[in-house]
Design a protein that fits this description.
This protein has 100 residues and is of the alpha+beta class. It has helices at 14-25, 74-99, and strands at residues 2-8, 36-43, 52-60, 63-71. Strands 1-2-3-4 form a four-stranded mixed beta sheet, covered by helices on one side. The chain is elongated, with a radius of gyration of 14 Å. Helix 1 (14-25) runs parallel beside helix 2 (74-99). 38% of the residues lie in helices and 33% in strands. The chain has two helices and four strands; from the N terminus they run E-H-E-E-E-H. It holds the Pfam family Ribosomal_S30AE.
Length: 100
């Protein structure tokens, strides 16, 4: 799967990009028709500790899934986003199976 990582208002390091790529690749295990995904990493300038925002947009044929999570670290937010996407992709796969 093609994963595009976009860092908004900061420079992203290679370790984080590799982590995001690896976690997004695992989504293909749940639904093999995933075309690509766009991951937006944002830092909000607030006094709160949970100022890291991750938005993940996954493109599948006929649909797009968008998940947004806000956490203390990017890794935690990516993990939560991926778990939500796993549930969405499993639901999508089951829905398609019932129509066949």
């Amino acid at each position: 799967m093609k994963v595009n990582v976009h860092a908004v208002n900061f420079a992203v390091d290679g370790k984080l990009v590799n982590f995001v790529q690896g976690r997004m690749d695992k989504l293909e295990k749940y639904y093999d028709r995933v075309v690509s995904s766009d991951v937006y990493l944002k830092v909000e300038k607030t006094s709160e500790k949970e100022n890291k925002i991750v938005e993940v947009k996954v493109n599948v044929p006929g649909d797009d899934f968008l998940v947004k999570k806000q956490c203390k670290t990017f890794e935690e937010a990516v993990e939560l986003s991926a778990e939500s996407l796993e549930r969405l992709l499993i639901k999508r796969k089951e829905k398609i199976r019932t129509h066949i």
